[in-house]
Design goal:
about 170 residues, alpha+beta, Alpha-Beta Plaits, four-stranded antiparallel sheet, 10 helices, 4 strands, globular
Length: about 170
Amino acid sequence: MERTLILLKPDALQRAIVGDIISRFERVGLKIVAAKVVKPTEEHYYHHYETIGKMISRRGQSVFDVTLAFMQEGPVMAMVLEGIEAVSVVRKIVGTTEPKEAQPGTIRGDFSHLSIAYANSKGMSIPNLIHASGDKDEAEMEVKHWFKEEEIFAYSTVHDKFTQGGK
């Protein structure tokens, strides 16, 4: 079974749409195996965005600085989802990083709309509600960074037969 990390960003919590977002993952059969609301430090975010995600290396210090300021505007909800091909399924449900380009029916397509150009013109981070691991390797590193092993739970649901190949 594959695991992936999602972060519901401060804008998702401040807009009170966490339940709407989570239900989309549950409806397709992904299982929540860990969840917590936290307000990480700058160092924690640096490890997440640069050590793991290479944001500064790929997009520059200014993008990291704007993202860090946005992420520190409030708490985030960190979750580990588990399921068959969980990383790619979550990425499909979330939609593209730029909300303006995200398809209707995706989280970003349904709940946000700003473009990267607009955000850049205002010197702000794009409020795109959610972070989702980019690939399996990133997911493994992110889950370990955000959760201790004892914070991740294994359990069965009545849906496992249909959503996770169980009997």
